[in-house]
Amino acid sequence: AQTVTQSQPEMSVQEAETVTLSCTYDTSESNYYLFWYKQPPSRQMILVIRQEAYKQQNATENRFSVNFQKAAKSFSLKISDSQLGDTAMYFCAFRRGGIGNEKLTFGTGTRLTIIP
Amino acid sequence: SQTIHQWPATLVQPVGSPLSLECTVEGTSNPNLYWYRQAAGRGLQLLFYSVGIGQISSEVPQNLSASRPQDRQFILSSKKLLLSDSGFYLCAWSVTGGGDNSPLHFGNGTRLTVT
Fold it and tell me: What is the pLDDT of residues B83-97, one digit of tens each?
């Protein structure tokens, strides 16, 4: 079974600064996918970024980027130029590869607060 | 475009009462459907998923059940609620065969409080 660990229950950072959220996972699979979801106070789950394990290049979406270290089974999220709207719970998630394996396994989340 | 509707948004039910949460998806056919529960201080726990009408897989033994009477309708039920059933319930869908990196798309959730 796969497990996802987020070791930082809470973090805070000043607006406009850069923050990195940690995520590690455990799996014996070689083909898998990793995701970061954001859950603002509205509780809506929003996909932030995704990474295919077979790709060496780190995914980037505007101010959001990941540092994917496959050998270390690490998948951290970096938020640059943080904004007040980035305040949310952030969840790391894992999915096995292959059709029919769309279930996601989530970490326990990191509560991020952006301080004005 | 695809949309997912989940209701009610909030629900307060006494212990021992029945439960029915409903989720519908629009704008797509034959989606994979999921029910997750989010307890305070914990991540999202997958309860049920469905790859087609009448096909339900349970991930966690419990007093909850799920049904998929129509292609884009997913229902979470209980005959008798327990206090431990309190939590935030999220319905989600994904594209069947949509590619290995197809994400889950979530509804707005239901806050259930069992008193």
Answer: 999 999 999 998 876
Residues 82-111 of B with CB under 8 A from A: 88, 90, 92, 94, 97, 100-106, 108-109, 111
Q: What is the DSSP letter of B6?
A: E
Residue B103's CATH number: 2.60.40.10
pLDDT in tens, A92-103: 999 888 766 678
Q: Count of residues for chain B?
A: 115
- Give the count of domains, chain B: 1
Residues B113/B13, Cβ–Cβ less than 8 Å: yes
Q: Does residue B16 belong to the interface with chain A, where contact is any CB pair within 8 Å?
A: no
What is d(CA B80, CA B103) in angstroms, rounded to the nearest whole number?
33
CATH 3.40.50.150 fits A3-115, yes or no: no
Distance CA A104, CA A45 (A): 13
Contact B103 A106 (CB under 8 A): no
Domain boundaries, chain A: 3-115
Domain limits at B105? 3-114
DSSP secondary structure letter of residue B85: G
In the predicted structure, residue B98 carries a pLDDT above the cut 90: no
